[in-house]
Amino acid sequence: MSTVSSLLSTKVSLSVAVFATMLGLAGCNKTEAPAEEATTETPVVEETAEAEATTPTATDGQTVTIYSSRNEQLIKPLLDQFTEETGINVELITDKTGPLMARLEAEGANTPADMLLTVDAGNLWQASQKGLLQPVQSETLDNNVPAKYRDPQGLWTGLSLRARTIFYDPSKVETNDLSTYEDLADPKWKGKLCLRTSKKVYNQSLVASMIEHLGAEKTEQIIRGWVDNLATDVFSDDTSMLEAIASGQCEVGIANSYYYGRILDENPDFPVKLFWANQGTTGTHVNVSGAGVVANSDNPEGALKLMEWLSSDKAQGLYASSDKEYPVKVGVDESDLLRSWGDFKADDINVQKFGELQTQAIQLMDKAGYK
Ligand SMILES: [Fe+2]
Description:
single chain; 371 residues; alpha/beta; D-Maltodextrin-Binding Protein, domain 2; ten-stranded mixed sheet; two-stranded parallel ribbon; 15 helices; binds fe (ii) ion
């Protein structure tokens, strides 16, 4: 990319400008948006033949900068392994998804970022809709990641799977009392249900999948039933929701599997059990954590190489188990803890739908009074 050198000097001065913007001083957004639009036409990055068999030779000194909303401790060992194997350095900038996307938008064509790594297909879809990602073509990703866990245009790919399912208090609830997310709207659960806030993208994606399967009208009825059955105010996070079940504030709730896994790590006798929802119907809702190549990256090849590496057998096992998630790559074993939860039928929906229906899901939850 011959433009790298000239861009660098511009980058420095513009980074100051961007910083200024973030501090709310006079905007220089005029500098970014048009350029960005132009750059989204950047040609599709072709997969490099030696993606798998790289040795730390020509790529030495190359750096891939990641904007990540993932827990740094969890992914740093993995990235260090990537550097060891490929000679490609990784610079990690960690923050919440919202600020990272705002930063990419503000930085525009002068962003130092090459890859966006985040959780939930709803977030990845948002980033692609904002033009922050560029399409890639990669046989490696096509082979390693099932199509339902990737953006059809190649704008992002899933790299690990997490299930959002039902958790219950086994001292009060029998497994045959449980079945579907929809059934939690039944009056038999009155004053027994705990939920995380509807403001969390995980719940927006769950409700989006219900709209896709059941339609908006039916889904709204169910959400109203959930709200009627709430035992407490909604929770700001899944962990405190699971602890509320354990402390007897409620009997059932919906959470992401890895939070449960993290609690069990600390307390193997945690008095809450996992139930695989919708096994007789659509299957349990699953979502991805994933990544995309930043539209204005000046090292898209390096970013693609890292995404391909993260989708490989070895990395998949490490990546998934490091955070008690499931590999997206078929045939890669999950960790012992996850295996102990038993096999389950996962919802077959393309996770891209969670983004497409996100706005409708948010409006519907609002209308139904789900805070
Ligand atoms: Fe999470």
